[in-house]
Amino acid sequence: MLAESFSQVCDDWEHYLQCKYVPVNPVESFRTYDVAKPSVVKLYKEQHENQTVDFVLKSRKKFSQLDKAHMGIWEALEMLNELTDESDNDTELSQIEHCLQTAEALRKDGFDDWMVLTGLIHDLGKLLYYFGAEGQWDVVGDTFPVGCRFSEKIVYPEFFKSNPDYNNPAYNTLCGIYEPNCGLDNVFMSFGHDEYMYMVAENYLPEEALYIIRYHSFYGQHRENAYTHLMNERDHEMMKWVKIFNSYDLYSKSDAPPNIPELKPYYQALIRKFFPDEINW
Ligand SMILES: O[C@H]1[C@H](O)[C@@H](O)[C@H](O)[C@@H](O)[C@H]1O
Ligand SMILES: [Fe+2]
Ligand SMILES: [Fe+2]
């Protein structure tokens, strides 16, 4: 099932480049963190204070075992439905609704199966909240590299001042522990649902889908371009997909809630094209 080359995955790249999701609400009404809910501010304070190199290494080790559950994708979506994302300032809908909204918006614009499926599952990693996460701060919210200087372009940069890595000379230079242009593959991102879902889906999806899943919360780069110095050529190619995906992830939040029972058969069939009945979590 793994796609071997870019052209195999995407037969109509030019078409996709034209696709710009047009939100119902004005673009400026999204991600307005200066007027955020108190839960959002609290979440980012905890996240920025606690995501250290040590913490990320421990979390990667703990969750890469994939020994937390054995279940199917649709089952996981239903389980996720119980969770309200405290970092999200833009939607009050449940996560299954958000996942379906993203997938539906992609489907309407004619994207390939793998991309629609990516929309459906991109936030499923939030299940790690039930699998022994410390709280929501190591599950949701935007992500960023650790082990190098925290960018001022990240939301609420002031909270990083209380992160123990902030004053560590090994970690607080522009590239920190990394070589310039080493590639994001070699960079430790703050731990959360992106990295976890990447681990879960690694054997089943094409490279582009996995890249989107792994970096969709990395607004510091896909929106702010604050970490270009760590990227290699592959990242530049792949990041184009993340940018396209982001419009659908973010702006579809203004659409009407999807009809879950009506959509279920289509998405179950789509899941079966890529995943076995049950996978390890
Ligand atoms: O609040 C949201 C939410 O947690 C999303 O799932 C994540 O991808 C975004 O980056 C974040 O801003
Ligand atoms: Fe997400
Ligand atoms: Fe999302």
From TrEMBL:
- Give this protein's Gene Ontology molecular function annotations: inositol oxygenase activity; iron ion binding
The cofactor named in the record is: Fe cation
* Alphabetical list of Gene3D superfamilies matching this protein: Hypothetical protein af1432
Q: Which GO terms describe its cellular component?
A: cytoplasm
Superkingdom assignment: Eukaryota
Its UniProt pathway annotation is: Polyol metabolism; myo-inositol degradation into D-glucuronate; D-glucuronate from myo-inositol: step 1/1
UniProt GO BP: inositol catabolic process
Q: Where in the cell is it found?
A: Cytoplasm
One Pfam family matching this protein: MIOX
> What is this enzyme's catalytic activity, as reactions?
myo-inositol + O2 = D-glucuronate + H2O + H(+)
Quote the record's cofactor note.
Answer: Binds 2 iron ions per subunit.
Enzyme Commission no: 1.13.99.1
Binding positions for Fe cation? H98, H122, D123, H193, H216, D249
Residues binding substrate: R31, D85, E86, S87, K126, G141, D142, H216, S217
Sorted alphabetically, the keyword list is:
Cytoplasm, Iron, Metal-binding, Oxidoreductase
Homology family: Belongs to the myo-inositol oxygenase family.
Q: What is this protein called?
A: Inositol oxygenase
Which species is this record about?
A: Paraglomus occultum
